[in-house]
Each structure stands twice: as C-alpha cells, then as structure tokens.
Design brief:
Layout lengths: L1 H6 L11 E11 L2 E13 L2 E10 L1 H6 L2 E12 L2 E13 L2 E10 L2 E8 L20 H9 L8 E6 L4 E6 L3 E2 L5 E11 L3 H4 L3 E11 L5 E10 L2 E7 L1
Antiparallel strand pairs: 1-2, 1-14, 2-3, 3-4, 4-5, 5-6, 6-7, 8-9, 9-11, 10-11, 11-12, 12-13, 13-14
C-alpha cells in the first residue's frame, strides 16, 4: 500500500459541485521520470468525491506495466473526511484486480474483490479493521490546500490490509515553506514476511503557501531501496 501512496493518482472529474481541486505530479526515481499522477476532487454540501489514476511512462512504463484507478466518495466530518465508498482497479503486469469497499460511520463494513484472492491465514474481515479510511481519501486530505497541515494520522484500509500513516508536526522547510515527515506502518492483513518489515516506509511532504493563507503539497520525497523517489507537482 505504501507504493500506492507514492503512485496513487489523469482522470474525469466527479459530479459534486462547489470547490474543485486538481493536481498533477511527475514521479521520478534517481532523476529519471517514470510516472504521471493526478488527483481530482470536488466538495460541496458537506460531501466530497475524489478520483485518481496513476501509470508508468516512458522506459519505466514499458518495463513495468502498472496502472491504478480509484474513486472515493463520502462526507466531510468535523474530524476530517469519512468515506462511504471506495473503488480501486489495479493492473500489475497481466493481472487486473478490482476492489469495492463500503464504509459506515467511519468503519469498513463490506468488501468485494474480483478476482477473489485465495484464502490466507492472515486475512482479516472488514469489521476487524476498526475505524479506518481508504488510501485515496487520505492522500487527497494530505495534499489538498489547508490552513493547517501535518501533525495527524490515518488508519487506512484498502479492502484487504490495515496500515497507519502518521504525519509529524510541521517544521520549517530549509527550501522555504513547510515540511512534515511521515511514517507508514503495516498493522494487519499482511503476510508474516511483510509484517517482518512492519515499518513500511518513510517520506517527507513539502508544502508551499497558496497565497490565500493556506498550504498545498508541492513535493513528496521518499528513500527507497532503488534510490530517492520524488513526486513533484507540475
């Protein structure tokens, strides 16, 4: 799921009205651009809808066939967004999977996966996930312009696994603006081998002022086994 947080995101706008939000990022690894990512969301009437797609481009896209499309809808609560539904389609090589998750009062209550993965002892039921939101909703909430950023956490459920994303308090960015360090941790639904690497990754989000008293994400940087991965807003 951490890879999706770096790869989540060239799409159609959802039919909500009011304030639209659209961002597009280029993803690079060791200075080589390998992906184009975008996020589109609209809010209105106390609700939100967000849609996203990610795909590899150039040499990377030719070598690694990966694509993601997601959509989340829900309510804007006092403590943050609460999804009602989340759908994701993921293509990796020749494999295609579709997952639909339904939420109620901040908890996942039903999941449909096509094709259904084979049973595994580490699988968890939706109700065992507790209070959680989908990864796309969390990503949008992390990137959208806001007066206050950082210093928050998200419990995430993607239809099969539970993880936690924690953003540290804001700090001054040496390059200007504001930065916060983030930590991603696997919680449940992972194989023993994956849980042995429970600390799933760390990255830094760099925010810049928008001119209206808010801050918006301009860049995400993460150290990976292949080098530094960067998502840079166009």
């Amino acid at each position: 799921m951490f890879a999706r947080l770096l790869l989540l995101l060239t799409l159609s706008a959802p039919p909500v009205s009011a304030e639209p939000f659209a961002v597009r990022f280029d993803m690079s690894l060791r200075g080589i651009t390998g992906g184009q990512l975008a996020l589109v969301a609209e809010t209105g009437g106390g609700r939100y809808a967000v849609t996203g797609r990610a795909a590899g481009t150039g040499v990377v896209g030719a070598l690694v066939r990966y694509a993601y499309e997601g959509r989340a809808e829900g309510r804007l609560g006092a403590a943050g967004p609460l999804p009602d539904s989340y759908t994701e389609v993921e293509i990796a090589g020749r494999d295609r999977s579709e997952t639909r998750t339904r939420f109620a009062e901040g908890r996942p209550v039903a999941v449909r996966i096509v094709p259904m993965p084979p049973p595994a002892p580490w699988q968890i039921a939706p109700g065992a996930a507790g209070r959680a939101i989908d990864p796309l909703t969390a990503l949008w909430d992390m990137l959208r312009p806001q007066a206050a950023v950082c210093d928050r956490s998200y419990d995430l459920f993607d239809g099969q696994r539970v993880s936690r994303l924690v953003l540290a308090p804001a700090r001054p960015d040496p390059q200007g603006g504001t930065a916060c360090d983030a930590r991603y941790t696997r919680i449940a639904g992972y194989s023993p081998e994956e849980m042995a690497r429970r600390d799933g990754g760390r990255f830094t989000v760099h925010y810049q002022p928008t001119g209206d008293g808010r801050l918006a994400a301009a860049e995400l940087r993460a150290r990976t086994s292949l080098g530094v991965a960067v998502l840079r807003r166009r």
